[in-house]
Batch of 3 targets.
Target 1
Amino acid sequence: MLKRLFIGVISSLVGFLLPFMGYAQKTSSSQNTNKAAPSANSTEKQANKTNVLPAPPEPPPLTPKQLARKDSLDNLAKLEIERLAALPKEDHKERATSLFRLLILEQYEVLEKNFDTTKIPARAKHLQAFWGRASGVLGDYRAINRITTERLAIGDVVVISAQFKNFDFDFSFNFDEKHAVIGFAYALAKQQYSPADSSLLNSITEQEITVTSGTYRLPGSLALPKSILNIFGQRYPIALLLHDQGPQDRDRSDNAYKPNKDLALGLGKMGIATLRYDKRMRLYQVKEQEMDKYTVNEETVDDAVQALQTIRELAKTYPIDTTKIIIIAPTLAAMVLPKILQQDERLHPASARVVGAVALALNYVKLYELMYPRFEHFFMQDGMTVEEVKQRESIMRRLETVQSAKLSLKTSIYDLPYGIAPSYWLDLRSYNHVEEISKLTLPLLLLYGEQDHDVDFTKNGLAWKKHLEGKPNVEWKSYPKLFHLFAEGNGTLRDYDRKGNVDAGCINDIAQWIGKR
């Protein structure tokens, strides 16, 4: 019932995108637009601007006792409205905080004036209806727990995690480059990540690095085993940690999970360095002139190839063994592994080659074929409302379009999954990943979680085991208790709501396999 209420309200009011794919981070994302996101340099310049107006005074707290009194409510609302008016437009964090407080204070008309209602259908009457229903479920407001800001391709996103009597909730405000509020969403508050063992934090030392891929600058982390400080002259094997589909960060963060962070810590403890970076589509929007030629190369392949070259460059400064470069690739990256290897060899023929790859939950069926059971699982897990029936029908129509003979470069992005350009789907449709992966001769380790409902174990894991049986370069293993993120689960969407870490046994298996290269 809670899932129906919260998802139903937000999707009807503010265009919230459902978590269509298990590995798409369970986050809302905007459809591709014609404008590119501001560069990192322009963001820095904006952050360094001197505010013309003086900082407004800190507002009084909103306490349950105050909120229960009508006179106090009106007075607090007046003060908050004045404070919001005095805030610099570029101070997105404070503006989001003020807008959240005005929602609590039921100032719907003021909220509407501060939203770009051409982008989000959040009129005062809608907000009133939404908050009337949601606040009844959440219970009395208690306090703001934390506020986080992040620069994404869709603009600055400020997330306010608030405590209520019954639940903690996250409220997200999305600001574009003109400082307009173009997105508003909310969901159950995410649990905070923590490593499986706090001592792991002492196993590595991290250096901030940048993967420069054409005109794109992708921030990342080089994690080195701390033992490098004690062993003179020793060089360490290194694993490049790649992404799945969607706008993922370097850690592949998903609620309280950070699979790539877990791998960096666990492998670091065993003497293996790692490099990971934020995905391009998380930081930059597709440019207008690139819309009709956007493919998986732009999403994953090009940047992965440049990351490999970055590793080779870093080896001039850090104790990295370039004769022992491994790729660890979840579903999408694993599927296009042959593309990455071929392009790397073509562009950097004189460089040391990748000596092995670990494929996590590699799909056997086409990528878009995975979506059908995922969507069915999401919608059917506790029955469907009328609104959810409509959403499911819309999604299925988009999937059918991907496989239709009518799909062409002229197909509207609004008729396709995720609003991704038709060139992307045409490219994937023409790519026979089963055939290409079967041709690989470098060592491969295929790992699967048997509780994975995103990449069905039987139709994918067992299918690959049978298909590659007898190939001397391939090793295969599955874990009965693990789900898609290789943490313990039971094969439902609830797996993503819990707090967990990549299984230590799985990381140990990867480390031992790398040690044989």
Target 2
Amino acid sequence: MPIKIMKRHAFLFLGTFLVATGTAPIAAEGLSCFELRTYTANEGKLEALHSRFRDHTIGIFERHGMTNIGYWVPQQNDNHQLIYLLGYPSRKARDKAWEDFFGDADWKEAYAASIANGCLVKKIESVFLSPTDYSPPIRSSITEPNRAFELRTYTATPNNLSLLDARFRDHTVDLFAKHGMTNFAYFHLTEGQEGAENTLMYLLAHKSRKAAKESFDGFRKDPKWKAAHKASEEKAGGSLTMRGGVKSVFMNPTDYSQTKWTPFSLIMNNDPMNRHASSTNRRQFLQKTTTGITAVAAIAQAPFFINRAAADHHNESRLGFALVGLGGLATNQLAPAFAKTKHCRLSGVVSGTPAKIERWQKQYHLPAKNCYAYDTYDQIADNPDIDVIYIVLPNSMHAEYTIRAAQLGKHVLCEKPMANSAADCEAMIAACEQADRKLAIGYRCQFEPHHHQCIRFAQEETFGSIKMIEAGFGFKIGNPNQWRLKKSYAGGGALMDVGIYAIQACRYLAGEEPIEISATETKTDPVKFSEVDESITWSMKFKNGLNAYCSTTYAFNGINRFTAYGNQGWFGLNPAYAYNGITGTTSKHDAISFPAIDQFAAEMDDFALCIKNNRRSRVSGEEGLRDLWAIEAIYDSIQNGNTIHLS
């Protein structure tokens, strides 16, 4: 039996035990504020999101006073969603609980580990709810674990929400029960939210989707319903709901939902023999129970041993990467990162310097057949040890070597910037699509936990709607003869090299693309920077009205940050784009702090999983192309002195 199934069966067995021993369902007593949260997972990440909730999140929620009501996935889940309901004593208690949750060391560790191979969540939506006066007590239940749940949302016609409530209160709720439906909860949106004046949301439980149809067919034919429906509409002078104003989503409970089993912390707190519930862990509890539960403990521990074997299997099935270009980044960051990956291995190199090849071959025990010069690059096509080619060359060479790699049948991870022009980016994308090969760009910060936390702040509007972003990255460049100062190689100066990080940060915090860009350039050393830009400041306007003010330089050190300002506070990172040592703070004086990860290892592991699972990378070629559109607009604005409008 697969490990996931064994673990799941262990918990289901525990749920059966709890029913047999008479453990009561959990009522949401003392709760006045409820929150319905919808997470849209990135492609291929929903199972990892479930694992994080199952193994960490729900327990940490409980620790901070949040009541887990239920967790569901839509039966038609094309958008990879997780929907769940939490309860709190008040809105103030809710805000404090989430603040404590995000500061919890266990959560930070679990979160950082979960996103090592890429962000799990693309979008988070949240609505705050208050129970109607006719809602039954909102409770979790471990009975009938295979029920189908239905989330229904009604939009009332203007000024008719009270009449809609009256119909539910006096007729509908009882008639639902009469026809075999379980009334789980009824809510209004709390004041201040869009649609609060005309929205009713409620949850029903059915034995199955088929049973739901049969129940509703009987309900609609019921003479009492027909009479109540007619009377209510006559009183309102028309329909109580807007045309198309009834939405329904059928959902299945997750295997960790409180609608299927009772959490350990609540069992322990209800155990009269447990005087030290807070210090008793899961294993100790299992050991105190019957022989059957002891068997569950054995099953629950089994994955530890079997996962080691699985890890060995992963070692054998790691994808082989060949590094093309053995400069400082490849030597100091990428090569050491392979030792920290789970799905990758360094299997080859390409260089124009024989001494470098010899040194790398000895240091990393590479077979001679996997080491290539540029004039033998195309022979990689015949080497099954190499699955991925990682392009670490000067910018002007990215397009050629990416296109050739795709034609050789290899997947491509290319350092940023993707190329020197948007046209080259488009050619790279087309070549990889034609060859049916994956393409990703080396945007390491998109795999870094501090950045993910800031993205979450932006998505959830933790500090209100973001109105402005300040971002910048620069440093004092040294050797005047290096390729980064040659336009034919670099395509540009500070903007192409490090200013691109500020563009990226603004784009993923805004969640949109810029529609207007205006820029100016300053040169204090026209000799050193005769071919490329030295210092640039630019502004970007986004469709939602957000403005970003950015800067980059090769003239001095110290700029390495971003700050996002919302209408309820701010948050930011400083330093923001370093290989390590990233840290940040918020207007609440809370530190943004997570354990450091190897960003390059996380980036490569994510791409390996994209290949294995046949999914698109979140840092695909299209992501690189969008940055080049912005970069070209910045250069156009400098040259022409105009604001550039982007479609």
Target 3
Amino acid sequence: MRLVCVEDARQPRRLQNSISVDWVISPALSCWLASQFIPTDYCHLYQSIAIPGLPTADDPDVSTGKVGSLYASTVGQPSLTHSYRSVSSNPQTRKSQDSLLDRGPGSAIVFPATRQISIALVRIPTKSDSISIWRFCFSPNTLQTNNDMSNDEIEQTTGSPGSPFIYVICQNGAEAATKLEIMTSHPNLKLAFSRPGFITFKVDPHDPLPERFNLKSTLARTFGWSLGKTSGDEAGAMVAEIAAVPRFEEAKQIHVWQRDPVIPGRNGFEPGVSTLAREIGKLFEQTEPGLKNNLVANRESKPDELVFDVVMVEPSEWWYGYHFANTVAGRWPGGTPLFNTSVETCSRAYFKLKEALLWSGITIQPGDVCAEIGSAPGGACQLLLELGAHVIGIDPAEMDPGILEHENFTHLRRRGNEVKKRDFRDVRWLLADLNVDPNYTLGNVAEIVNHDSIDIKGVILTLKLTDWRMVAEIPELIAETKMLGFQVVKARQLAFNRQEFCLIAVKDKFLLRLGKKARTSASLKK
């Protein structure tokens, strides 16, 4: 719904030529709104112009408030914000600066409301070069305050399922690709706010998401409802402000995390709950609602549990909201699994595979034969050997000496397409991590999987995104993998991935149910 306030009888015609208008209100009605929500010294009597079908200042419904009540009940109780700007008093300068300022003192002006249902009122003091703009937003608990933002990116300050904004966590540097992917698969979402690794979207009120929604995205690490933000220099005051939010009082689990400062692996950074986020989580546990509900911070949540979220976009700027843990990654703080990243490993592939197994539900059993194409220096092989598997590492490069010495490891110093098919005869799980085009990797995998003498249960592939625009090709890659005879195929950019994503596929979905059952059982024992 779009709501505009007209200043004269000619304006609706001009507006309707450029935007869709569902409701048009008169200066008289905007005056009534001003009297309800703006301090008295800011109220001005507007010249009332009769427009067919609209109330005027003489209309008894305006004076009694019936019209305002009608609009409030139709589009939601309006919220109010006041923004202040300094501008030149020169009419020509004002016109060139901002078309909103080309109005007289006390006039009601139009905000086209491309993102929100809103009207605005202007007061220009006679002895000052400053202007005060009051904006009404007809979306419960939603404010739009920054008038300098472009149409492509507007800032969200608060939101709720009644006026929904959602947040999305992604890898630092993947924002543009994530925005494109999400807005392609969810055309009812519009970009609202963006920082490296953190994005919010506004949901079209005419095409809402269910409260327990799932986002169709490979790059989204986690997501949920965004309720707003708080900022300041005193952590205790910020915690107290968030603890007063109704959803916080309902939650028994809170996830607190910092957005990624850089891409994973750079300068020794690995995703997870930072020391600062852990300490802030403890403060939330000690609040009155937290103690009453036995609130637990930064633990793996139970399936489908209501989780309150606090994202530390900056140390002094926290965004908050909630989600239901209806995905595996949704049970982890910030969509990152809770395991120790300080262990000594051959390479980061150890963490990537560990996350892939937890996310996918694949369980490697002792004695399983696994082969990895592109295995050097051996991080993934290290984890497989720890799980009791027999591992074949396929790579012309050198493997880590500790891996080579393991009794259950065999090194084939060849490229994947140079390995004889009989060497895969006993392999049940096939892994690949090649720095090549995804189609090349899938071609190698297809030759192995389709061979008559080979029975692969499933594959775990790390596919490189040499260009972020390749995200658009992921649905096609999934379809091609299904054609190889796999029942279940899933893709996700893992928290420990870089400019790449993980694709897993299994021929029997029962294998994933076994993994899920084991994972849930282990979680409940914690």
